[in-house]
Amino acid sequence: MTYQLGDLERNILRMISEEEEICGYELWKRMSSKGIKCHSNHLYVVLKDMEKEGILKGRWVERENHSGARKHLYSIGKEGKDVMNSILKDSLSVLMTSYVNEMRQLNDYSGFASVIAQASVQLGLPTPAEGEKIVLSIPYHDPLTCYQLIFSLTDSFPNSSLYLVTPPKMEIYESRPNMTVLHGWRHDMPLKDEFADLVILEGFPYQVSEEETIRECFRVLKEGGNLVVQVKNTMVEEREPEFPFFSEYVEKLYYELFQQDRKISREKVASILQRYFKKQTEANIMGTTVFYGKR
């Protein structure tokens, strides 16, 4: 799209997104009531241009009892929805970056550490021993917790080796003595068979089935090794939250807009794990469904 959106056009999109349809005059009144200054004649010119570009949709309707001139109603068009999604993506990226930077300055990785600690107790997960190999496979950008997750593991188990599998375009700008970064995918890890003592998987990629991803984790694990899969409840059909907290809504937006993970059925994943692993169980911890399997 070559049409450049300025502050006025962005404000128009935001205001119209709050309504199913709205006429130009009502839009002008609402913008004025919120301190957005714009001459009405100029607003109509901008609305016409945005409709021409497909950012807005417009239609004419007769007034009640056919009294007076027809009204032209505006709603968000296809291009407008794409623009709104782009704005949301940028906003989420800013939120994530700000949050991660704040946590890095505080050296606070307690959120993920709490999930791991509670999972260890509830699922009977053994603590990695000295010299054992941990594989952590993540999507391009784990929402809000990427660096927390990585560094809480390296700091919690300094005598173990962490192999971090990230997508090829993802860069990790900090290092740890016991961390090795590998480029690959959650369903196609660049590791030999029976390599790891513990595999931690963050969500299921949308590109392949749940079984293909679990099969890959099984391949990488040693006999007697352990698999932990973490899936935000936002992406679990049976546990999708009603978003009482803003953070849960941010997660929902992230998964919808970036489309890196698939929504899963808890029962289906549990059934697949039962076919591959000697022991399988799960827990619901801090808004996260955690699956555990022992090879």
- Could you tell me the radius of gyration in angstroms? 25 Å
CATH topology of the largest domain: Rossmann fold
Query: What amount of the residues lies in strands?
Result: 15-25%
Please count the beta strands (DSSP E, at least 2 residues each).
10
Task: Give helix and strand order, one letter per element, not per position.
Answer: HEHHEEHHEHEEEHEHHEE
Strand order of the largest sheet: 6-5-4-7-8-10-9
Under the CATH scheme, the architecture of the largest domain is 3-Layer(aba) Sandwich
Mean pLDDT: 86
Please describe the biggest sheet, giving its number of strands, its sense, and whether it closes into a barrel. Answer: 7 strands, mixed
Q: How far is the N terminus from the C terminus?
A: 51 Å
Multimeric status of the protein: single chain
Form type: elongated
CATH superfamily of the largest domain: Vaccinia Virus protein VP39
> Could you estimate the helical fraction of the residues in percent?
40-55%
Q: Based on helices, strands and strand pairing, what is the structural class?
A: alpha/beta
Low-confidence residue ranges: none
How many domains, as an integer? Answer: 2
Explain what you see.
This protein is 42% helix and 21% strand. It has 295 residues and is of the alpha/beta class. The protein folds into two domains: 7-89, Winged helix-like DNA-binding domain superfamily/Winged helix DNA-binding domain (Arc Repressor Mutant, subunit A, Orthogonal Bundle); 109-294, Vaccinia Virus protein VP39 (Rossmann fold), CATH 3.40.50. α4 crosses α8 and α5 crosses α6.
